[in-house]
Write a structure and sequence with these properties.
Layout (H helix, E strand, L loop, with lengths): L1 E4 L14 H9 L3 E5 L10 H6 L3 E3 L2 H7 L2 E3 L6 H4 L7 E4 L7 H10 L2 E4 L14 H18 L21 E5 L3 H13 L2 E6 L2 H10 L4 E5 L2 H8 L4 E4 L25 E4 L20 E4 L2 E4 L9 H22 L1 H7 L1 H4 L2 E4 L2 E2 L2 H6 L2 H5 L1
Parallel strand pairs: 1-2, 1-4, 2-3, 4-5, 5-6, 7-8, 7-10, 8-9, 10-11, 11-13
Antiparallel strand pairs: 6-14, 12-13, 14-15
Helix pairs in contact: 6-7, 10-11
Length: 366
């Protein structure tokens, strides 16, 4: 198979769809890999690294899309790429369709096969391709939240870990999935007081078992959320419903109950965000303020640490890329239930139920 690795063109997205190590595994099996020139530079890999691994280096993104039967990338295609995607071409990347109707309709129009990293799901309900980016984003959420608590960026002027004689910051983590656990771990490591909320008692029991005593758990409901936001310095939103839009757990009216200079970091922004006032931002202009509350809602947070993120992502995507390349997408997905769940759009037809529900299309098709 011919596989294309284009350069990511989303704002400040420095990750790349595959490392040279991944390219080598493909070329060893006889596949042709086309890498756009400088695609890996942001992640610390130059064209020579890919060439040595057996890739053909092409000068433009148009050439990569034109040559490839399958595109492997990191972020969803943006408008400049819509016209480049061909009928029957497989596109394997993060899509987050449920929060972007325009993207969904554009991909339907291409009649390509869209397989989304974020909905590939193992039998135990885990999301193997989303997990490493959630780990990165959860840890980064605390780094960025701590930064935006500083006064020069309109935060409260509070050191998250405190110092002797001064209380540490209070962190509220909504969601005890991968993002929430990693965020709680980082916040606890800094010495912050951490409360983590979830509706799944098994997850809360796990948190209680593995976290230090200054990380406490509570059941997630509106009453407890309203109670904690009044005293929290930093709030992390890490709620995910696979393939669907995130629920709005902090509404606009709740902001008035929060302290001026408090910070909220919405890691669920790719899926529409779990705060009503969330809107996607970029690393170039990452934060905004509503009702004196600082919002950090960067949609590609792991893109700020591209070397770590690219290696972590390739570690988990490569086995699936190899299967798709070796067997073709139809056989690979028939033989692998996890991969089949990643299939979102096939030649103009949405086949992922949460996307149909997000846009009210399920009823229309009934």
């Amino acid at each position: 198979m011919k596989i294309g690795i284009p350069k990511e063109i989303k704002n400040n997205e420095n990750r790349v769809g595959m490392t040279p190590a991944g390219v080598l595994e493909l070329t060893k099996r006889g596949h042709e890999v086309y890498v756009q020139s400088t695609a890996g530079e942001g992640s610390g890999f130059d064209d020579e690294d890919y060439y040595v691994a057996g890739a053909k280096i092409l000068p433009t993104i148009d050439r990569v899309y034109d040559q490839a039967q399958m595109i492997v990338k990191v972020k969803e295609p943006i408008q400049q790429e819509y016209e480049l995607i061909k009928e029957d071409q497989v596109v394997f990347t993060f899509f987050h369709f449920a929060s972007d109707k325009r993207l969904t309709e554009a991909m339907m129009k291409t009649k390509s096969v869209c397989i989304a990293y974020e909905t590939v799901e193992d039998k135990d309900g885990t999301l193997p391709l989303l997990t490493p980016m959630s780990e990165v984003a959860g840890r980064m959420a605390i780094q960025q939240g701590a930064k935006y608590l500083e006064k020069p960026v309109k935060g409260k002027g509070l050191l998250l870990g405190g110092v002797p004689g001064v209380r540490p910051g209070k962190v509220l983590v909504i969601g005890a999935g991968t993002v929430g656990i990693q965020a709680a771990k980082m916040a606890a490591g800094l010495g912050a007081q951490v409360t983590i909320l979830d509706v799944n008692m098994n997850k809360l029991r796990y948190v209680n078992d593995v976290m230090p005593s200054h990380v406490v758990t509570e059941f997630s409901n509106e009453y407890n959320i309203r109670k904690h936001i009044k005293t929290s310095d930093l709030i992390i939103g890490g709620v995910l419903i696979t393939g669907a839009k995130a629920p709005k757990l902090i509404t606009r009216d709740m902001l008035k109950e929060m302290q001026p200079g408090a910070v909220i970091v919405d890691v669920a922004v790719d899926q529409g965000g779990c705060f009503e006032t969330t809107r996607p931002t970029t690393h170039e202009d990452p934060a905004y303020i509503i009702d004196d509350v600082v919002h950090y809602c960067v949609a590609n947070m792991p893109g700020a640490v591209p070397h770590t993120s690219t290696v972590a992502l390739t570690n988990v995507t490569l086995p699936y890329v190899l299967k798709l390349a070796d067997e073709g997408w139809e056989k690979a997905c028939r033989d692998d239930d996890s991969l089949m769940k990643g299939v979102n759009i096939v030649k103009g037809r949405v086949v992922c139920e949460p996307i149909l529900e997000a846009f009210g299309w399920k009823e229309a098709m009934a």
